[in-house]
User: Fold this.
Amino acid sequence: MRDEKTSAVAKMELAGSSLRASIEDGRIGTREMFAGLRAEERNALAADVWDAGLRAVANEAKEPRKPIRLSTIPPSSW
Assistant:
């Protein structure tokens, strides 16, 4: 039996006017989601997932009385 991680680990670096992100995710099924794709497709999917996640967090942040908690974002927003 493999030792699976239960969450992703992200490393962020501010690089000039940009943000550089590196994700390490050992959760069951995550690798398989990307494994059958070509490199260009993997990169595009990762960018799409990043954009969707940022939009979901930004939408939650629009409600000023509520703290931002990822657990409050419905999975359909992912």
The chain has a mean pLDDT of 82. Residues 27 and 76 are 19 Å apart (CA to CA). The chain has two domains: 1-36, 38-78. The helical segments are 30-35, 39-61.
